[in-house]
Design a protein that fits this description.
The radius of gyration is 25 Å and the shape is globular. The protein has a 5-stranded antiparallel sheet, with helices on one face. Strands 12-13-14-16-15 form a 5-stranded antiparallel sheet, with helices on one face. The chain is built from 15 helices and 18 strands. With about 425 residues, it is an alpha+beta fold. Helices cover about 40% and strands about 15% of the residues. This is Serine/threonine kinase. InterPro entries: Kinase-like_dom_sf.
Length: about 425
């Protein structure tokens, strides 16, 4: 087997680029690097930045006396070899819990206190970095920022517990077990109370998403080209925009259409934010990933939304799958920044999304049966799919037709297939 040092990990535009000529399986990937399993007891983390590799190596060496640290075996310029844990993360372990066990709370407090005693400045760990072994023994990984970031209270831990509705349960146990610790945390949060009106969200420039402040403790549930969305309570979220102009555009659409069932309820607005209802449920893209066919009920709901948008004066008639949420109150449609300003009379992005899921043909057939006039308007001109998709389709036509066409060179067809896979992967993120 080839040496793991031949594996190369570099930063791409949206994700890491991995060149792995070995048989070591990829078991994890984050913003700093990728993790590969070497054996039943060892794994290697390979970093894109040698400085981050050095920072984590120093933190791991400093924490080898701590029982919850992974054992360190070897370090290099861009890697660390450490103990491998074949166990669920604490996020997975607590998935179906309605309250947090006292035993887990005690162990988490013990870990946080030990980090503080070891002079780590980041006294914190997100749930996905904590593994639960036999007898509820906890192990914590990813310590690259242990001496860099300032987290005197467990901001990420509390954020993650809040997302799975266990924060209050955890804090009530902390108050009982360590009242002084609870008071310290309480003072910190009183002093640094969440004021979303002052959260710095800046535009990332043309074609790039907005930039957000990583130290914000509230759960970041979405981020795109125009703004970032934070969950601020059980049933509310706030969208903060990089540009006031985008805020005004979406605010105008939302406030003018609160009577429409698919528009989220708005509670409060400002020059650069909109506070609205938090939508509980999967988006339609996530839902359709698990379906083998497209139900007529979904087609009818989508058609009703699009026709209602047109009647209500929307100029951009489109409903991308990732912007539609399945809630107890029916479909809810988010992201209306361009609904009044961008002229588009056909749901082109929806067509593209459904094509990628393999449902476009059945969707159009069902629309034709439900509303022949709308179907005729949508299909009077060819539906423009992406260039890569069209190229794939042209290279996979019926055999009899293919003989009449000029054959694509094999290397070009291979390129098309690769580009199409990458295209679909990007669209599904």
């Amino acid at each position: 087997m080839k040496e793991f040092k031949t594996i190369k990990v570099t930063k791409g535009i949206k994700t890491l680029i991995i060149d792995n000529p070995t048989n070591y399986p990829l078991i994890g990937m984050g913003s700093q690097g990728a993790v590969f399993k070497l054996s039943e007891g060892k794994c290697v983390k390979i970093y894109t930045d040698q400085l981050q590799a050095k920072m984590e190596a120093e933190a791991l060496k400093a924490g080898q006396h701590l029982p919850f640290f992974p054992r360190l075996y070897e370090t290099g310029a861009n890697f660390v070899v450490m103990e491998y844990f074949n166990a669920p993360t604490l996020k997975e372990y607590l998935r179906n819990c309605t309250y947090i066990p006292e035993s887990i709370t005690k162990k988490l407090l013990s870990i946080l206190n030990a980090m503080k005693d070891a002079d780590f400045t980041m006294v914190d760990a997100p749930l996905r970095h904590i593994f639960v072994l036999e007898n509820e023994e906890l192990k914590v990984v990813d310590h690259v920022n242990a001496f860099k970031r300032q987290h005197p209270v467990p901001l990420k831990l509390l954020r993650d517990l809040n997302i799975i509705l266990l924060k209050d349960s955890f804090l009530s146990r902390v108050k009982k077990l360590e009242p002084d610790t609870f008071k310290t945390w309480e003072k910190y949060f009183d002093k640094n109370s969440f004021d979303y009106k002052n959260i710095p969200v800046t535009s990332g420039g043309s074609g790039k998403g907005v930039k957000v402040e990583s130290s914000v403790t509230q759960p970041l549930i979405g981020k795109g080209h125009q703004g970032a969305v934070y969950r601020i309570s059980e049933d509310k979220c706030v969208k903060i925009y990089g540009k006031p102009g985008h805020c005004k555009q979406e605010k105008d659409v939302l406030l003018a259409n609160q009577h429409l069932s698919f528009i989220p309820t708005v509670y409060k607005t400002g020059d650069q934010y909109v506070e609205m209802e938090y939508l509980i449920g999967p988006n339609l893209n996530q839902y359709l990933k698990k379906q083998s066919n497209l139900s007529e009920d979904i087609t009818k709901r989508l058609l009703d939304i699009l026709k209602t948008m047109k009647k209500a004066g929307f100029k951009q008639i489109d409903a991308p799958l990732r912007h539609i949420f399945l809630t107890n109150q029916g479909f809810k449609f988010v992201d209306h920044v361009y609904s009044y300003t961008r002229v588009q009379d056909r749901p082109l992005e929806l067509f593209q999304n459904l094509h990628e899921r393999g449902f476009l043909e059945s969707f159009l057939e069902q629309v034709r049966a439900l509303d022949h006039k709308t179907h005729a308007n949508w299909t009077k001109e060819p539906i423009p799919l992406s260039e890569v998709v069209q190229a794939i389709e042209e290279s996979t036509v019926d055999k009899n037709q293919r003989r009449k066409k000029e054959k694509l060179p094999e290397e070009k067809k291979s390129w098309f297939r690769k580009e199409y896979r990458n295209h679909v992967k990007d669209r599904r993120k």
